[in-house]
Design a protein that fits this description.
Helix content is about 80%, strand content about 0%. It is an all-alpha fold and about 190 residues long. Helix 4 (about 105-115) crosses helix 5 (about 115-130) and helix 5 (about 115-130) packs antiparallel against helix 7.
Length: about 190
């Protein structure tokens, strides 16, 4: 019996540890002060899961773009999960936005102490983050309407790749800017 190096097992253990630690970040919101702990925790958890699932969706797109057998069904399933989590993230973000814009809320603090935090980072983050859902829904519609068959056309794969790239980049900008805003307010 040939002994294989344990690299795959080590990589799986590292990945599992990273996912667990990554998902524990939003749980820190429960320990912090504030009126909207539950909304913040749910939004952080939804945003973290969305980033992870959307990255996982890209792996399915590679199989689909190469024309592998189960690539389309895998991509459709993962894209559906990404769109669902994106919707959940946007709903919880709107829940948080009520407190953000409330009198003596974070918006007022940012406008007084760090105007760029609100006018540039938050407003830009809002707009870009909202673009993830239309990109994901458009990709899913195109996948169902035009992406069937044994080998999808090069144009369909190209458009899906562009839409998934836009989805992932918009989501990543929203996620990173959200972390920046939380850090600025926490200091």
């Amino acid at each position: 019996m040939k002994m294989q190096p344990p690299f795959r097992d080590l990589a799986m253990a590292q990945g599992a540890a990273a996912v667990v630690l990554f998902l524990l970040v939003p749980a820190a919101t429960l320990l912090g002060p504030g009126m909207h702990r539950t909304a913040g925790m749910l939004h952080g958890l939804a945003a973290s899961l969305t980033v992870l699932v959307a990255t996982y969706t890209w792996h399915a797109f590679y199989d689909y773009a190469r024309g592998r057998g189960a690539g389309r069904s895998r991509l459709a399933r993962r894209l559906g999960m990404t769109n669902g989590l994106t919707l959940l993230t946007l709903v919880t973000a709107n829940w948080l936005y009520i407190g953000y814009q409330a009198p003596e809320g974070a918006s007022e603090w940012f406008k007084l102490h760090l105007p760029a935090g609100h006018w540039v980072v938050m407003e830009y983050k809002e707009f870009v983050s909202l673009m993830t859902l239309p990109c994901g829904v458009a990709a899913q519609v195109i996948l169902y309407r035009l992406g069937g068959g044994r080998s999808p056309s090069e144009g369909v794969r190209l458009v899906l790749g562009i839409l998934l790239t836009m989805l992932w980049l918009c989501m990543l900008v929203g996620f990173a800017f959200g972390l920046i805003l939380v850090k600025w307010k926490a200091v």
